[in-house]
Amino acid sequence: MKSLILTITAKYILPVMMLFSVFLLMRGHHLPGGGFVGGLTAGAGFVLYAFANGVEVTLEKMWLRPVKIIALGLLIAFLSGLPGLITEASFFKAYWLPWEVFFLPKLGTPLLFDAGVYLVVWGIVMVIIFPNITED
Amino acid sequence: MEFFLSIFVGLLFAAGIYLLLHRDFVKLVIGIVIIGNATALFIFVAGRIVRQAGPFIKEDGSVPESFADPVPQALILTALVIGFGIQAFALLLFKKLYDVPKIHQVDDLKK
Amino acid sequence: MIVCIFTIVILSLAVPLLYKVFGSKTAYLLAIIPAVIFTWFLYQYLQFSPAFPLQESLTWNPYFNLNFSFYLDGLSLLFLLLISGIGAMIYVYAGYYMKGKAYYGRFFMILTLFMAAMLGLVLANNWLTVLVFWELTSITSFLLIGYEHEKKKARYAAWQGLLVTSFGGLALLAGLVLITIVTGEYTISELSNFSDTLQSSTLYLPILLCVALGAFTKSAQVPFHFWLPNAMAAPTPVSAFLHSATMVKAGIYFLARFSPIIGNTIEWQILLCATGGLTMLTGAIMAFKSDNLKKLLAYSTISALGIMVLSFGLGTEAAVYAGLAYIIAHALYKSTLFMLAGIIDKQAGTKKISELPRNLYKKMPAAFILVTLAALSFGGIAPFFGFVAKEMLMEMVLHAPFFSSILVIVMVLTGTFFVTLLLILAHSTFFKKKGKAGRNIIAGGTIFYLAPLVTALAGLYFGLFPDQLSELLSNAAATFANNIPEKHLALWHGWNMALALSILSIIAGLGLYWAKIAFNWKPKAGFLSLIYPSNIYQYLFNGVIKLGEWQTRKIQTGYLRYYAMFTLFTILLLAGFTFFYKAGIRINTSTIDVYLIDLILGIIALLALAYTLFSPSKIDSLLSLSIVGIAISIIFFTSGAPDLAITFFLIDTLTVTVFVLILHKLPKKIIPKTTIARYRDAFISLGIGLLITLILFSITYDPLTSRLKQFYAENSYNIAKGKNMVNVILVDFRVLDTFGEITVLAIGALGVFALVNYSKKNTIL
């Protein structure tokens, strides 16, 4: 079921959706958005791409396999708890970096944790949907 | 608004349970989905409806006068994603079961 | 003390590792632990004996009044020394006994844990902690009894022990809760200040019964004694430990500990004396009828436990001293006898006296000497410590405040049986005239005899110099009452009534043994087995299983729908009843406000819902489902939850995607419901829907005053530096919950992963 329109659209939409998902993640602390929504958006983008080009091609283009993305997300989420453990002796206590970068939100462990959530959700969407996309 | 939403939630539950008791796998999973949605809405309504005002602090950092309760929202948000996982798992499980000969409907599970 | 308990627990976990390094020498290494404890506490005691009681405390959970508060007084010390002293011997013995057996590391791990639990039990002062250790001993002894889990008998015995003792544990819990209800106190050492309050309370009788039930089941009193003989299925070192110094003594310890708190009332005396007296006699008779060496010893333990319960029940000064002395005497001779029974069993290949080869004394002279030493103490023959204790027991019943004559008769009868048992052990076992030749029997290694030798000699030593124990016993007795005078133990009390009774029992015992030999009494089950409580246990056990099977057949039909239906119907009934009974219907009419757009949305959603329900096509019902989803996400959006709206929309889309992908591999046709099913399901589902609506009406009737909402509003920007409260809750305030949730998600994904890939070699994901 390859369609030229879909293939080309997916090719251009994927970066846009990824960018948008990261944007959702970054603004999540102040405005609607966050890791869950961002991860779902990213996942949806890749699902679309896989529809257009097939799962094999999609996976070849990725640096990491979806299961490893989940693992990485969990690891990041866990690690984000450690600074608080070290500085305040309390696991997951928020720790904020003292400087600010001009266009990014304030950087700290909550954002890192949200990034972990983002990765986990993103990976899950792919793990669940990819096996069902079969070219036949 | 709560009045009508309560009725809506009740109907959603009724529909979900009706489908949950179905012999057909697909209808059963649809039932699970509907019950999941209904539960999310149930928690949401129980936390009261505040129209148009999300749980956000104002730009200057002050607390707005009226805003929706953030607690049920946080609960529902995670529940939704987990619910998605469960639904997908159930569906895949049934698909696998279908690949096994002779299990085409829920009652065949007894064999 | 705390350090010591925790060290043992940690060490016990390290045992399998030690086994890897040290092999079968691990046991001797582990024996150092109890030996060190024994020496250290003995040293402490000799150095600072006036400093009693020692206290230590470590907070565990202050909210529940739960802390590791440990308390060492004379009574605890007595038990502590017994447990660690006998424990060290058991390790040495078990090291030889268990050599080369399977699961060696596991055995010693559980044994060490068991010992730690036992030590904790006698030291703990907060009753919640006591209960934790109490149950820990039940569980570890379950594992020890069922150690040879390949054997059905062992599994059965382990179950029985666990069920009986944990039943008692529950009763004990109830009793202790009642005590706390009356007094509000969790610390046992403080409870004695409340003894008047407790004893005049209306709850006194339930408290007494519950605590006694706990102690009686643990200490195998009639009618709960049946689990103990079956517990013989355990390896012999365990039996020796369980019977002599631990497990069954836990109940005795508990009675002693609670005697100044709820003891010395008429009810207490009647209950304990009657049970103790009955147990003494039953145990003695059953032991007399046993042919199996270990069974014989087990029943005699029951009898001895009865004696201890009786003495703490009487509660006079003489009785307290007699009971405490008997605990020591029993621990010493019973551990020796058990260890030797194990040696005989291992070397001669049988535990049954009737199957033993003839003239065993020639083959195993060391065993014979040691058995005789211990059995003499058991029978209460001078100059062993058993004699000293027996004299004190006779003294006790002679001066009992009530029913003195009956108690004297019971005591003399029990003594008679004990003397007979002594002869069976020392004579019948080793001097059989008939039987196999048993040529290949060898005596066994020297180290095998080391541990019983020490305990047997200790029995003799304390018999010769009983005054060595006077101070220890006096300290222990001080737990019962503050003003109890010190007492000096002596081997020779002069010609008195107690001695006369002692001699009477010895003569009667000799007579009984002669009669048994002369008339060749064969052990038979006899009339006792008719009302034998283990049969009642068996009936109950089978009954529960039958009931379970019956209701499983009735409810669990194997059809998924019926499971769901039963569950839902139960929910409907119970929740509905509670709702109407407690709350009733309340409708807040001020919430009947609606915009036109909502109304249109609602109608569309309901139509879509109806189509989802009744559409004959799968793909159609799926699409209408997604319409319902979109409607819900619009509701979220207009009600101040944009986060939810976006998430819900995405989830809805993805769910439908998964469905569509899978649908085309499933049959198109929907299997319809039958007509009856339609009405029935409609009834249940509409019922639940209605109930939910009413519940929601009721919830939204009152205005919500949420402190949480206020808290997050005030703090999410000030503390967590975020303006989106939902996100702040998820990634900052309740971050640990979210972490748990994404972990669940990841596990779910692994499930899907496994499900998809279980037959494939190369996974693509």
Automatic annotation (TrEMBL), chain A:
Ranges for domain Na+/H+ antiporter MnhB subunit-related protein: 5-126
Q: Which UniProt keywords apply?
A: Cell membrane, Membrane, Transmembrane, Transmembrane helix
Q: Which domain of life is it from?
A: Bacteria
Any one Pfam family match given in the protein's UniProt record, by short name: MnhB
Q: How does it sit in the membrane?
A: Multi-pass membrane protein
Instruction: Please list the coiled coil stretches.
Output: none
User: Membrane-spanning residues where?
Assistant: 12-30, 36-57, 69-91, 111-130
Q: Which InterPro entries is this protein grouped with?
A: CPA3_antiporter_subunitB, MnhB
User: Is Membrane given among the entry's keywords?
Assistant: yes
* Annotated localization: Cell membrane
Q: Which NCBIfam families does this chain map to?
A: PRK12509.1 (NF009163)
The entry sums up its family as follows:
Belongs to the CPA3 antiporters (TC 2.A.63) subunit B family.
PANTHER family, A to Z: NA(+)/H(+) ANTIPORTER SUBUNIT B, NA(+)_H(+) ANTIPORTER SUBUNIT B
List the protein's name.
Na(+)/H(+) antiporter subunit B
Organism ancestry? Bacteria, Pseudomonadati, Bacteroidota, Cytophagia, Cytophagales
TrEMBL record, chain B:
Transmembrane domains' residue ranges: 6-21, 28-50, 70-94
Subcellular location(s): the record lists: Cell membrane
Q: Which Pfam families match?
A: Oxidored_q2
Q: Which UniProt keywords apply?
A: Cell membrane, Membrane, Transmembrane, Transmembrane helix
Q: How does it sit in the membrane?
A: Multi-pass membrane protein
Gene3D superfamilies hit by this protein: 1.10.287.3510
* InterPro entries, per database record: CPA3_antiporter_subunitC (IPR050601), NUOK/Mnh_C1-like (IPR039428)
Q: Which family does it belong to?
A: Belongs to the CPA3 antiporters (TC 2.A.63) subunit C family.
* Stated name of the protein: Cation:proton antiporter
Q: Which organism is it from?
A: Marivirga lumbricoides
Source lineage? Bacteria, Pseudomonadati, Bacteroidota, Cytophagia, Cytophagales
